[in-house]
């Protein structure tokens, strides 16, 4: 079993490529919150507004800004994510959880969403400490209380031992 977390991921800005039915539903939920070009806010919904079968697949992270530097702190992490990763990261900072070589590669997706204000899909293989390699697909979507500056990330995640991420 591995002693560190590893990722082999591809970023894909084309959300039409989402494969997981759960992530497609989560993305459609987020789209339904949008008003034109204005980003939805965290206050626009409660996680329980989502169908119960989607709750285990969602996560919400705060975007903490210090000048041009960004840091992410997990706020809500669904049970599918906790089981898939083998740990509960709610309340923890991203850089405290994922260090080393993997941090830069993985945080690039989060930075891209926070800086561009656009959703992003990423997919590939991942291996968490004491876990086997798994397929993963993730959709990350920006949230903003003022409609422009991203202050939270709304995530949908699926982990599977099978090629079919459904």
Describe the structure.
There is one protein chain. The chain is of the alpha+beta class and 166 residues long. The chain has a domain at 28-35 and 56-160: PAS domain (Beta-Lactamase), CATH 3.30.450.20. Helix content is 24%, strand content 31%. It has helices at 21-33, 79-85, 94-97, 101-116; strands at 6-12, 58-66, 69-77, 120-127, 134-143, 152-160. The chain has a six-stranded antiparallel β-sheet. The longest helix has 16 residues, at 101-116. The radius of gyration is 15 Å and the shape is globular.
- Give the CATH superfamily of the domain at 28-35 and 56-160: PAS domain
Main β-sheet, in a few words?
A: 6 strands, antiparallel
Distance between the termini: 26 Å
Strand content: 25-35%
Low-confidence stretches: none
Average pLDDT confidence is 84
Could you give the order of strands across the largest sheet?
1-4-5-6-2-3
Q: Briefly, what CATH class of the domain at 28-35 and 56-160? A: Alpha Beta
User: Count of helical segments?
Assistant: 4
Helix content: 10-25%
The computed structural class is: alpha+beta
Radius of gyration, in Å, reads 15 Å
Shape designation: globular
CATH topology name of the domain at 28-35 and 56-160, in short, is Beta-Lactamase
How many strands in all? Answer: 6
CATH architecture annotation name of the domain at 28-35 and 56-160: 2-Layer Sandwich
Element-level helix/strand string = EHEEHHHEEE
């Amino acid at each position: 079993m591995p002693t560190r977390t590893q990722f082999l991921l591809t970023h894909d800005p084309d959300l039409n490529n989402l494969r997981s039915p759960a992530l497609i539903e989560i993305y459609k939920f987020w789209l339904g919150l949008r008003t034109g070009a204005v980003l939805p806010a965290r206050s626009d919904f409660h996680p329980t507004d989502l169908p119960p079968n989607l709750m285990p697949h969602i996560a919400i992270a705060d975007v903490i800004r210090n000048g041009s530097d960004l840091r992410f702190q997990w706020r809500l992490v669904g049970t599918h994510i906790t089981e898939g990763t083998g740990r509960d990261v709610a309340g923890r900072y991203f850089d405290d959880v994922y260090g080393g070589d993997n941090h830069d590669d993985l945080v690039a997706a989060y930075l891209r969403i926070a800086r561009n204000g656009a959703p992003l899909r990423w997919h590939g293989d991942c291996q968490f400490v004491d876990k086997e390699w798994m397929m993963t697909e993730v959709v990350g979507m920006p949230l903003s209380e003022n409609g422009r500056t991203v202050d939270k990330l709304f995530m949908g995640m699926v982990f599977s031992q099978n090629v079919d991420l459904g």
